[in-house]
Amino acid sequence: MKRILSISLIILFPSLISAAASLHSPSPTPTPWPPQFHSILFMNNTKGTLQIIDLWYDWPNRRNFNIIQNQLGKKLYDLEWGNGTSYYYTLDANKECRTMLFPVGILPPEWLAGAEYLGQEIKDGFLCNVWTKVDFIWYYEDVETKRPVYWAFFTGMVAHVMTFEVGKVLDDPNWQAPVYCFEQSAKEEASDSNSNSPFALRSLMVNSYSS
pTM of the predicted model, to two decimals? Predict the structure, then answer.
């Protein structure tokens, strides 16, 4: 009997040590964004509006670019600069452009610092660590690769991360807003009643970083 008990303890000992260690290990923290990356996002909101966003993030140059294709609709270019200026424009014959002013620039790589860890969950087929930041965004990160998988906003809008290319950079000429953006008489302060609009979400994301 003693021999059986000893063998059982030997078998169980590593599991007990692992369980005890997990009780005292700190909660995971979100991986900071790489300084530069390219990502394709599939977006859906509570109204069923679908979008594909071609996202270019370039922190060293303090710029961010979202090319937003609405389902069977308009393609919107959302060009953001670190000085708080953003241009929302089309490249079609209508030559639409809206210039917005934000109190701060683009999100830094560590914008999720201080997020609350919620545990692990399967999302889109990936085992993810999950965090929330000031009840604004729920952020899912692949446990194995540390790549973002899924974002959910308090508005009901969700983003499925389809690709994530670290170090991919958009050529400089593509970062120039069209000339008609500079022919506008005045810039607008960043505000909008539609909480799913790109400029409203950007304002909220920046505010969540500073909280």
Answer: 0.79
